[in-house]
Amino acid sequence: MFPHLAPPILIEAAHQFGTPLYVYHADRIRFQYQSLKQAFSNWDVRFFYAVKALTNLQILRYVDSLGCAVDCSSINEIKLALKAKIACEKILYTSNGINFTEIEEAVTLGVYVNVDSLSALEKFGKRFGDSYPVGIRLRPNIMAGGNLKISTGHAASKFGIPVEQLDQVLALISSYKINVQTLHIHTGSEIKDAEVFVQGIHLLLGIVANFPDVCVINLGGGFKVPYYPNEKGTDIHELGHALATLFTDYQQKTGRQLQVWFEPGKYLVCEAGYLLTTVNVLKENEMLTFAGVDTGLNQLIRPMFYDAYHHIENLTNPLAPVHTYTIVGNICETDTLGANRSMPTIREGDLLSIQNAGAYGFEMASSYNARLRPAEVLYKDGTLQLIRRRETLEDLVQTQESL
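RESULT FIELD:
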């Protein structure tokens, strides 16, 4: 079990850079990546960090330094990866409901490209024929994920080409001589059961014979990480063993060896992140004691958007008697960050740490209520390094025009 960042380090970060503040632990990111490499060491597996989880350039550079490739969901994420000096052959782009010009631009940048609709596949064939390799994202009709909003492989999902349209896919490939090298599925996020991934493997191995040029099976991401204390995540070692067994058996039967890709985002950075916040006010009514803090749904939307749980610790009064609090933000909306939490006595001015904030925390932040986005700090090699300054009012108005 990898230890959390020690409270003195987090307290020092808050003193040095103020709150609210995102802090990321580089060693935890490295640990997570090495865990994946070890779990899947019995097969030819490649990992692409899902950039949408956290796009800070210093995080991208650090992930790249570990040997991990990156997965992008937009043309600007590609450009951020390139700005971080990541080689184009280490960048994967999976489009979703975009104008075809974005795919064309991705091709000019030389990255791996996935398409996820018949329309995009036909346009790709007309434009590029067999001159540029492409991947196809399929919708596997598998319901999985910790919340419907992050389940992407079920029958009502907008993502991917339904497997029922396989004949149409094959007709387009034949008509335009499209060079399909990757079959891709992604069933969702927060998938605890390794059997979900096994279902996806069976599905893709069942149809890959129709794609003689395919050399990669992309199983997407979605590994579950623990949010509650003592909660279990995806057993990646169990999955690694099952994957190696299935693909070895397939190779022995067909003589065909397929590389496997995964797109972990949350798995790599979630547990490495902390959102530090100061208690502004304590407020009691006949039912609850509220602890109002200097952050809110504008800086961590997951609790309100997904009903997500984030463990919260009192860093500056950890040994005090335990009471029950509801931790709320300073936004003019209901923005409960943690309801009915039993924790050491909270005082105004105490510093709280919201854990598992590395993925989709800062990345989904906004300037709602004209609040400023916080600074970001990377703890690496024993030092705290500022990797994004705190926003200013001038940042909020710099794109507005004077009339």
